[in-house]
Amino acid sequence: MSRSVTFKIVLLGEGCVGKTSIISCYTENSFNNKHVETQQASFKTKRLTLDGRRVDLAIWDTAGQERFQALGPLYYRDANGALLVFDITDEDSFNRVKGWVKQLKRMLGDDVVLCIVANKIDLEKDRHVSMQTAEEYAQSVDAKLYHTSAKLNQGIGELFNDLAARMLQKV
Ligand code: GDP
Ligand code: MG
């Protein structure tokens, strides 16, 4: 097998949109109904094989700095991929994504693979951000849109697989 490659992935998004849940769902197959604020910046790892190549993902969670809008360059420096997460029932969380996308593009340029993640699709009946609005926005910033539910484990594996493939294309 050819050499393995390691990618750093960061999650950005307002508190309570489901960032920690997405990571737990993907790396531990678990879901917690409670919001537990992550205390320290930390990462989880996941290994996968793609096109015969070993890919190690280092997936970084925030330490709750999003509350102070203080997720700075130290956090996303060297990121190969970024998940900009919002909650489809919360329009503010969608609008907040736009600021982070600008920041990321300014700091990392086109080196980072951007994913806009519409989470909590199991709460479709309370949706406040239409699919079309999200899709148009994602296209306008050259990002790809993903629809997920960390609660029901929907779209999560596909999201990370697709992101890994897109990051591999850049190396
Ligand atoms: P974070 O602050 O962005 O890390 O958000 P958390 O992962 O702590 O999740 C915040 C709350 O949303 C918790 O109560 C989770 O159980 C809940 N949650 C996360 N993802 C989903 C989802 O896909 N669907 C639903 N219904 N709830 C979710
Ligand atoms: Mg969290």
Automatic annotation (TrEMBL):
GO terms for molecular function: GTP binding; GTPase activity. It is found in: Endomembrane system. One of its GO terms (cellular component) is endomembrane system. One of its GO terms (biological process) is Rab protein signal transduction. It is a lipid-anchor. Keywords: GTP-binding, Lipoprotein, Membrane, Nucleotide-binding, Prenylation, Protein transport, Transport. Belongs to the small GTPase superfamily. Rab family. This is Ras-related protein Rab-21. The lineage of its organism: Eukaryota, Metazoa, Spiralia, Gnathifera, Rotifera.
